[in-house]
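Q: What would this chain look like folded?
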Amino acid sequence: MEITAKRSGCWLWLWLSWVFTAIQNSCRQIMVCILRAGPIPRHIAIIMDGNRRFAQRRSMEKKAGHEFGAESLMQTLRNCYEMGVDCVTVYAFSIDNFKRSREEVDALMDLMQHKLEALLDKESLVNQAGIRVRLLGNLELLPERVRHAAEKVMVRTMSNSKAILNVCVAYTSTEEIVHAVQGACQGVLGFESVNRREIETEDIESHLYTAGCPDPDLLIRTSGESRLSNFLLWQSGFCYLHACGVLWPEFSFRHLFLAVLGYQRACSYINQGQKHKSLKGLSSPL
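A: My prediction, written as structure tokens:
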């Protein structure tokens, strides 16, 4: 009798879990439909902040916090894809993060390599959804094993065309701008060595790491901070900034929904600013 009761309780728990998941998925689909009634941001940028605090508050190792953060990224990517977002750019690892303890940096590199290799699986989200993965930053600063995994993922997903995931690693915006200016100067001098011309805004933008993607429409930062932390400074002049109070591993569809809703309220102003920037950039030499 006792065994039967335990089995009955187990089946009841599984059934309730299934019902709860079904209700949750239905609610998410309804909320996606609500958002699609308005403008959906083409490009969402995210500063994934709070992994270490998440681990500290739960008396876990820092590595565990980053692992939870990686899971949150994949779920958020799935949610963005379902909404119809074309491009997602995340700030995964700053050049300044190399100043952290050797133990934490090594753990992050191990996690990064593992997650990159997992993306090669045919059943991974990026392959199932047709998402192209690009790693942006000074990749020469990464360990060779991580750089090799990154290059392999970028080559393997190059033909995916439904959406783009940009992962900024070994990245700061100032380094990106310096890199772009150097590339623009070399391009102008090399292409027009006789008839030199001034460097235009578009020359620099074509050498940014994010070249080929539209500027962000919405930039989200978790953990309650409202700083850009040297992330997409050139590209985010006319995007909607949303500071979310939860830590990154706690970020859910509900928080993404509220961020996109805020963007929709400010969309007309953002579009005007982006249009003004586009027109000004075509005629303004640097």
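Residues 11 and 17 are 10 Å apart (CA to CA).
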